[in-house]
């Protein structure tokens, strides 16, 4: 695990909001800058699973959007395998993929039609796409008979498995998982988590995992960053982070969060 | 990816959109019936005048407008559609140049327009017992192909609007389409328009398309007789497409700075 696959340096992003808090544009109300990310720097090495945990609105999705170049930072940069994500966008896009909390498909199209569409965008032949999809779906315990079903007829858990397949079938070197298991039932959640671990082991894929789920990051991440209000509070291995907490028996990552931020986890998530 | 691979990747949009047509087949039938009835209704206005040439004049207007507006609509709505479905981020993340993404969308729009207008043309010819014996069909086809470029350019420009503002963008595209219909002489000569509207007719590429199509199909004029107008229309079209792509890229960068490339609807 020597080669740095992802490097983010001094990333800052702010959005304009209206100080009345209504979100309604009013020319008489002054705009306020709200920082989504403040001076974030980190790097992830080949084959590493790097977790980012934080409550809603802490900046996790903003960070992922900047890495995939769907959002341009106010300052700082992101490099994937030494290439700037903005300057070498086509080359970098080929190397990475993403799963977000919203499955996002053409709902009327079948699972396979949706995946063939994405496969073609990544210059994959139809036969190759079908073969890879079937392999991935088997691992995810997704019934192959549902591949010709419209996405709108699938449950949330099944849709999320299709989203996972969409990202993995392009065989990315860097995978960005933005709350991939949120809203899944425990069984589906376990299938997805096991698949993430399998892919890292089998292909040495570098994975950035953003999550609410403290147990999930503790279980599968090599290192974890705790993010609050756009800033990394602490970055370390789950074991070392847990050592920081004193006076609590059977320390969990939730205890770590409370200790480092001075806030209750449940309160932040809800 | 080399150019051949990018062209193959742009086929993704053609295949995806025809798959969507299959899935929304009942709506496609509704659209075809609506278009047919619309063209026939307009044709009957010509029949009521007792002038066979007037029927052809109106039917040409209705069909050409149908073809060009389908191209404009399909290209301009492509971004809006992806926003509604929530797939825009995944499409924009894929390793395909924006030019090739738009190329794929355009190819689909032209094919869809040909099928849609072709069906309507056949029904209209049968319904009104029209003949194109004196028409110069080759010139007509060339004019239609050359005109398509202008409408592709306009469609890409209109696709920028939903990129900037989701709902308002789509609303603005509909208004643009309606104004082009009003000022371009689709069903009447532009000479009947009030003086103050006529400058807009000069700016609309559809005005020249319709005038040349009618010259070719009603008066049998040849390419040689209209070469200058065809050349001008071609230059406008070829200039408009790269210009529209340039502005599309600028708009995409702006949307990325403001964080507007998100699902909505």
UniProtKB/TrEMBL annotation, chain B:
<feature type="transmembrane region" description="Helical">
    <location>
        <begin position="102"/>
        <end position="128"/>
    </location>
</feature>
<protein>
    <recommendedName>
        <fullName>Transport permease protein</fullName>
    </recommendedName>
</protein>
<dbReference type="InterPro" id="IPR000412">
    <property type="entry name" value="ABC_2_transport"/>
</dbReference>
<dbReference type="GO" id="GO:0043190">
    <property type="term" value="C:ATP-binding cassette (ABC) transporter complex"/>
</dbReference>
<feature type="transmembrane region" description="Helical">
    <location>
        <begin position="25"/>
        <end position="48"/>
    </location>
</feature>
<feature type="transmembrane region" description="Helical">
    <location>
        <begin position="172"/>
        <end position="190"/>
    </location>
</feature>
<feature type="domain" description="ABC transmembrane type-2">
    <location>
        <begin position="18"/>
        <end position="251"/>
    </location>
</feature>
<keyword id="KW-0472">Membrane</keyword>
<dbReference type="InterPro" id="IPR013525">
    <property type="entry name" value="ABC2_TM"/>
</dbReference>
<comment type="similarity">
    <text>Belongs to the ABC-2 integral membrane protein family.</text>
</comment>
<keyword id="KW-0813">Transport</keyword>
<dbReference type="Pfam" id="PF01061">
    <property type="entry name" value="ABC2_membrane"/>
</dbReference>
<keyword id="KW-1003">Cell membrane</keyword>
<keyword id="KW-0812">Transmembrane</keyword>
<keyword id="KW-1133">Transmembrane helix</keyword>
<feature type="transmembrane region" description="Helical">
    <location>
        <begin position="134"/>
        <end position="160"/>
    </location>
</feature>
<dbReference type="GO" id="GO:0140359">
    <property type="term" value="F:ABC-type transporter activity"/>
</dbReference>
<dbReference type="InterPro" id="IPR047817">
    <property type="entry name" value="ABC2_TM_bact-type"/>
</dbReference>
<feature type="transmembrane region" description="Helical">
    <location>
        <begin position="226"/>
        <end position="251"/>
    </location>
</feature>
<dbReference type="InterPro" id="IPR051784">
    <property type="entry name" value="Nod_factor_ABC_transporter"/>
</dbReference>
<feature type="transmembrane region" description="Helical">
    <location>
        <begin position="54"/>
        <end position="73"/>
    </location>
</feature>
């Amino acid at each position: 695990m020597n080669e740095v696959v992802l490097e983010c340096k001094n990333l800052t992003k702010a959005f304009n909001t209206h100080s009345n808090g209504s979100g309604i544009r009013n020319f008489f109300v002054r705009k306020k800058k709200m920082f989504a990310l403040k001076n974030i720097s980190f790097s992830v090495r080949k084959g590493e699973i790097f977790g980012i945990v934080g409550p809603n609105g802490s900046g996790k999705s903003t960070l992922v959007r900047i890495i995939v170049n769907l959002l341009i930072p106010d300052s700082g940069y992101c490099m994937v395998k030494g290439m700037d994500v903005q300057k070498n966008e086509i080359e970098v896009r080929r190397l990475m993929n993403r799963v977000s909390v919203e499955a996002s498909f053409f709902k009327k199209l079948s699972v396979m039609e949706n995946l063939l569409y994405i496969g073609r965008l990544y210059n994959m032949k139809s036969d190759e796409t079908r073969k890879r999809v079937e392999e991935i779906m088997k691992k995810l315990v997704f019934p192959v008979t549902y591949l010709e079903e419209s996405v709108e007829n699938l449950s949330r858990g099944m849709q999320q498995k299709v989203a996972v397949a969409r990202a993995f079938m392009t065989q990315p070197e860097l995978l960005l998982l933005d709350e991939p298991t949120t809203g899944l039932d425990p069984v589906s959640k376990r299938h997805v988590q096991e698949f993430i671990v399998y892919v890292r082991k089998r292909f040495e894929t570098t994975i950035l995992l953003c999550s609410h789920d403290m147990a999930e990051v503790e279980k599968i991440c090599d290192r974890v960053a705790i993010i609050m209000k756009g800033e990394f509070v602490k970055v370390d291995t789950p074991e070392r982070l847990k050592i920081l907490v004193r006076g609590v028996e059977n320390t969990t990552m939730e205890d770590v969060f409370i200790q480092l931020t001075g806030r209750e986890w449940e309160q932040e998530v809800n | 990816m080399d150019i051949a691979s990018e062209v193959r990747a742009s086929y993704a949009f053609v295949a995806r959109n025809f798959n969507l047509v299959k899935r929304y087949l009942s709506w496609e039938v509704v659209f075809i019936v609506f278009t047919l009835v619309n063209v026939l209704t307009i044709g009957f206005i010509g029949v009521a005048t007792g002038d066979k040439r007037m029927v052809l004049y109106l039917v040409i207007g209705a069909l050409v407008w149908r073809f060009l507006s389908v191209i404009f609509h399909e290209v301009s709505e492509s971004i809006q559609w992806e926003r509604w479905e929530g797939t825009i981020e995944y499409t924009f993340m894929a390793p395909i140049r924006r030019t090739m993404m738009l190329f794929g969308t355009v190819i689909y729009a032209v094919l869809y327009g040909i099928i849609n207008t072709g069906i309507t043309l056949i029904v209209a010819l049968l319904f009104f017992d029209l003949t194109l014996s004196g028409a110069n069909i080759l010139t007509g086809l060339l004019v239609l192909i050359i005109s398509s470029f202008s409408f592709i350019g306009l469609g890409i420009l209109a696709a920028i609007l939903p990129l900037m503002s989701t709902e308002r963008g789509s609303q603005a595209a509909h208004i643009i389409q309606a104004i082009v219909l009003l000022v371009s002489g689709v069903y009447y000569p532009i000479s009947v328009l009030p003086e103050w509207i006529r400058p807009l007719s000069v700016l609309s590429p559809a005005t020249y398309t319709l005038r040349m199509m009618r010259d070719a199909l009603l008066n049998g004029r040849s390419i040689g007789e209209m070469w200058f107008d065809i050349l001008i229309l071609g230059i406008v079209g070829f200039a408009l497409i790269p210009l529209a792509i340039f502005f599309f890229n600028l708009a995409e960068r702006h949307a990325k700075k403001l964080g507007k490339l998100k699902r909505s609807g």
